[in-house]
């Protein structure tokens, strides 16, 4: 029967069994570059080691990711492998990593009813209804824009102003 005692410095988990050769010292390199020496039995599970490291670093245990030999040491509800099962031996170095947050930006989809196509950048944005549209629905008539009448009036006024500014006046008597 094994009973575990916790040392005052939270650096080791020592077994009360008579076989002290079972314990080993491993090193954990943190994100800041510090190296933590930890003495644990080889039968220690990865989740127990993660809890021990969480106590030492004051970081939440669920956010810690341990990497050994380029592989992430993953625990699940079904399996919680020991250090020996993960080929972690005496004087091994584990690297601490934080989980990745975020990801790629979400693609903007067409705002037209049931269309699932990606919206076109810049040319797919409607200034009248603030919608984002794909190539098939980007024109005001195609997506039945509520600002269509305002757009037509605005365009008509712009064209009229342009024509008036370019009008030539015939001078009589020259």
From TrEMBL:
<keyword id="KW-0862">Zinc</keyword>
<dbReference type="GO" id="GO:0008270">
    <property type="term" value="F:zinc ion binding"/>
</dbReference>
<keyword id="KW-0863">Zinc-finger</keyword>
<dbReference type="InterPro" id="IPR000626">
    <property type="entry name" value="Ubiquitin-like_dom"/>
</dbReference>
<dbReference type="InterPro" id="IPR050158">
    <property type="entry name" value="Ubiquitin_ubiquitin-like"/>
</dbReference>
<feature type="domain" description="AN1-type">
    <location>
        <begin position="104"/>
        <end position="153"/>
    </location>
</feature>
<keyword id="KW-0479">Metal-binding</keyword>
<dbReference type="InterPro" id="IPR000058">
    <property type="entry name" value="Znf_AN1"/>
</dbReference>
<dbReference type="InterPro" id="IPR035896">
    <property type="entry name" value="AN1-like_Znf"/>
</dbReference>
<dbReference type="Pfam" id="PF01428">
    <property type="entry name" value="zf-AN1"/>
</dbReference>
<protein>
    <submittedName>
        <fullName>Ubiquitin-like protein</fullName>
    </submittedName>
</protein>
<dbReference type="Pfam" id="PF00240">
    <property type="entry name" value="ubiquitin"/>
</dbReference>
<dbReference type="InterPro" id="IPR029071">
    <property type="entry name" value="Ubiquitin-like_domsf"/>
</dbReference>
<feature type="domain" description="Ubiquitin-like">
    <location>
        <begin position="24"/>
        <end position="103"/>
    </location>
</feature>
């Amino acid at each position: 029967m094994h009973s575990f005692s916790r040392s005052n410095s939270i650096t080791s988990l020592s077994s009360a069994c008579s076989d002290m050769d079972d314990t080993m010292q491993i090193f954990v390199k943190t994100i800041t570059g510090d190296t933590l020496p930890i003495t644990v039995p080889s039968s220690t599970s990865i989740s127990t080691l993660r809890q021990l490291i969480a106590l030492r670093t004051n970081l939440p245990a669920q956010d810690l990711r341990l990497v050994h030999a380029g592989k992430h040491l993953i625990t699940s509800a079904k399996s919680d492998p020991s250090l020996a099962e993960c080929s972690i031996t005496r004087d091994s170095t584990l690297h601490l990593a934080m989980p990745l947050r975020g990801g790629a930006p979400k693609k903007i989809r067409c705002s037209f009813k049931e269309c699932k196509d990606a919206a076109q950048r810049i040319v797919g944005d409607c200034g009248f209804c603030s919608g984002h549209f794909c190539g098939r629905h980007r024109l005001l008539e195609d997506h039945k824009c509520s600002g269509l009448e305002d757009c037509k009036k605005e365009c008509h006024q712009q064209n009229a102003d342009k024509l008036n500014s370019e009008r030539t006046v015939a001078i009589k008597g020259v």
